Amino acid sequence: MGRHSLPEEPVPHPLDPPKRPAGRSETTGSHRIVAKKAPRRRIAKWPLVAVGLVVLATLGVVGWNWADSVLNNRAEAQAASCNGGRTDVRIVVTPQVAKPVEAAAARWNQDLTQVHGSCVHVAVQSKPASAVLNALTGKSSLATIGGLPDGWIPESSYWVGQLSKANPDVIGSPAMPIGSGPPADYPFVGLSGTSIDEVQQRGTQSFRAFLKEPAQLADFAAAGIRAS
């Protein structure tokens, strides 16, 4: 035996499983085993959150504006309707302040200002302080000044002092100056009587406070009357 002989290939046993060719994937039945998939790439969540917040904020602003508009429209409709009726208030003033007080009354009436659910309409009448004092103290008839007014603005607190001495029961609320200091301080005094009801008294007091607002004070200043 002068040369080497190759080893003989073993003879497969009939019951042995068949060999798999190299490089082939395993199979189970008729399905191939699939390799693991690569992990899915995550999407950042903060941009979505930011967009959501912007949307919510926008909806909130739109909703607020809508609600505010509804309330304003409802208030305007209520004022325009004056469901509580109309109450007339008459203010007698000294001639020096007639113009600015009339301008204030025009604004007040245009706004259909309500007091206790009733639209209060303010009328302004110009009368000398002496004539008003005589009528309020019984020295002359109330008819000379058109009846008992709801409020009175003389040029000086002197006249209110005289009224307080002669007929204190006719004073319904303390005088409040609406002009510069003495002797011309233009006090506004609310009056009282059987012909003046609670709504008229409240309306008179509300109009007195209205005269202290910037627009009215500007009118007083234009008439040469400084704010007190």
TrEMBL record:
Transmembrane segments: 46-67
Feature: compositional bias, Basic and acidic residues: 1-19
Record's keyword terms, sorted: Membrane, Transmembrane, Transmembrane helix
Source taxon at top rank: Bacteria
Region (Disordered): 1-32
Record's protein name: Solute-binding protein
Organism: Amycolatopsis rubida
